[in-house]
Each structure stands twice: as C-alpha cells, then as structure tokens.
C-alpha cells in the first residue's frame, strides 16, 4: 500500500470534507499544502531529501535557502510542474482542476509571445479566469502597467515585465499564491508599492502565500513564517529551520542576524 502511495499528489475526496477524527492543528487553521518526506534526485545527485512542512490556510510563508538547494524545484513539485523522486504532496483542494483554478504563480522567468501587446496578454488571462472579485483596472493602475498596455512584450524592460508577471499571478484572486523573488528588477519605489499592494490584497482576500526571497524587508513585511533550506554533511538539501518570524527574531535577535548566520555573502 505504501509503495502505491509514493510519488503521488493527493486531493481529499469530495465526500470526506472534514472527518471528525481529523487532527486539529495548533493554529486552528486547516492545512492547505502538506509536503511529506519529499526527495528529488537528478541523475546520481540527490538535491534534497526528507523535506517536510505544512502550509496552513491564510499563512504567509517564506521559503529561503542557498542557491541550488532546491527551493524552486520544491515549488515546481507543489505546482505539479515536476515530479518528485519520492515522498508525497497533499493539496487540500477538491481536485486538480480546483487547485489549478486557485493557484497563482509569479516566476522570475516567464516566456510570452514576443509580438503580443501587454493589453492583449492581460485580456487573454482575464478571459480565462473571468473573475469579478478583483478590480483589474485598479491593479493595472497601481502596478503602473497602464502606460505599457500598447507596447509589445518584446519592447518592455525586465522590471516592467516583472510587474506584468505579478499582475497575471493575482488577477484571478487565487487562494494559494507563489511569488518567486517578487522584487527582482524593480526600483525602490516600485518594490515598496508592490509589497504594500500584495500585503493589502492578501489580507483582504485571505490569500495563502509562499514566497521565495532573500530580501529581509520582504520577509518582515509580507511573511509570518520562514522555512529555511540548508545542506547536511552529505551536501543534501533539507529543512534546517521552520518557525515563525517572531520566534526566529527572539532566537537570533534580528532577521539580519538570522540571514547572516545561514548565508555567506
């Protein structure tokens, strides 16, 4: 039975919504994503193993770690883009379609048709989702994309494209939002505005968020918990620390001290 369960992504069955025997988490919020004994091997190299964590509904979690430890790979596995070598990913949604409809992802690198206008790209995504909960025009204005609408994708800068990526990841009001280095390519003013936008919307709509970031300001402003990936003595990635920002600050005195302890610059 256990062999059959390996390498699977699970969705709770409809008829078993919340069994009375379900264990109640300490924070009383339901588990939205649960990663159990996750392992990924490329060729003869084990990237990470025995990775375990839960993300609860409404949590804002930062997934951080040194380069090459497997952060993006873990996110890809959660999204279903990659397959794990071993372990399980439980998504607490009705089914795969429900998960995909409620998933918002902003990756650093996104490829769009180069000759398509920004407006056409936004209209395409808006038509797919057809969500009336969020004012798209207000988002366009806040993200300063209104001045880009007539431009072709190939004519906009990296920072401008990043703003478009952010818009496309949130215009359908996702329940679960993944942001990968959201401030990359943005100037200080844009970073501040976008952080505030994401924080305000996430609180208004109770988004569950997973952020990949090394930015201390983003950690303290947007997140309430940190999952730190490091390497063991064998050079294999695993979870080194998983705690609330409040507890981490108590332990390390500051987030800057926490970062400098685990990262070399």
Structure keywords:
2 domains, 10 strands, six-stranded mixed beta sheet, 10 helices, alpha/beta, 265 residues, 25% strand, four-stranded mixed beta sheet, 35% helix, Rossmann fold
Word description of this protein:
- The protein is an alpha/beta fold and 265 residues long.
- The chain folds into two domains: 1-12 and 26-102 and 174-186 and 197-265, Rossmann fold; 113-173.
- Helix content is 35%, strand content 25%.
- The chain has helices spanning 2-5, 71-79, 96-101, 118-129, 136-142, 158-170, 188-205, 216-222, 245-252, 255-262; strands at residues 9-10, 31-42, 45-56, 60-65, 86-91, 103-106, 176-180, 208-212, 225-231, 237-244.
- The strands form two sheets. Strands 6-7-8-4-9-10 form a six-stranded mixed β-sheet. Strands 1-5-2-3 form a four-stranded mixed β-sheet, covered by helices on one side.
- A hairpin with a 2-residue loop joins β2 (31-42) and β3.
- 30% of the residues are buried.
- The model is unreliable at 1-9 and 14-25 (pLDDT under 50).
SSE inventory with pairings:
Layout: H1 2-5, E1 9-10, E2 31-42, E3 45-56, E4 60-65, H2 71-79, E5 86-91, H3 96-101, E6 103-106, H4 118-129, H5 136-142, H6 158-170, E7 176-180, H7 188-205, E8 208-212, H8 216-222, E9 225-231, E10 237-244, H9 245-252, H10 255-262
Parallel strand pairs: 1-5, 4-8, 4-9, 6-7, 7-8
Antiparallel strand pairs: 2-3, 2-5, 9-10
């Amino acid at each position: 039975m256990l062999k059959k369960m390996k390498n699977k992504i699970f969705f709770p069955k409809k008829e078993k919504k919340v069994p009375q025997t379900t264990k109640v988490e300490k924070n009383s919020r339901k588990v939205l994503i649960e990663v159990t004994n996750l392992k990924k091997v490329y060729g003869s190299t084990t990237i990470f193993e025995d990775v375990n964590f839960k993300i609860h509904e409404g949590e804002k979690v930062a997934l951080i770690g040194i380069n090459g430890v497997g952060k993006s790979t873990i996110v890809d596995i959660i999204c279903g883009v990659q397959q794990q070598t071993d372990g399980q990913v439980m998504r607490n949604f009705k089914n795969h379609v429900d998960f995909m409809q409620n998933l918002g992802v902003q990756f650093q690198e996104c490829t769009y048709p180069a000759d398509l206008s920004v407006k056409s790209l936004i209209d395409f995504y808006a038509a797919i989702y057809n969500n009336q909960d969020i004012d798209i025009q207000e988002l366009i204005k806040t993200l300063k994309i209104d001045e880009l609408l007539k431009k072709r994708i190939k004519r906009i800068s990296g920072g401008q494209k990043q703003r478009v990526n952010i818009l496309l990841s949130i215009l359908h009001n996702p329940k679960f939002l993944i942001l990968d280095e959201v401030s990359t390519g943005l100037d200080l003013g844009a970073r501040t505005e976008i952080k505030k936008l994401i924080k305000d919307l996430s609180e208004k709509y109770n988004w569950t968020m997973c952020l990949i970031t090394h930015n201390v300001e983003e950690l303290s402003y947007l997140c309430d918990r940190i999952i730190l990936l490091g390497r063991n003595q064998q050079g294999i990635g695993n979870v080194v620390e998983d705690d609330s920002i409040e507890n981490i600050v108590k332990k390390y005195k500051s987030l800057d001290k926490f970062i400098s302890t685990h990262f070399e610059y």
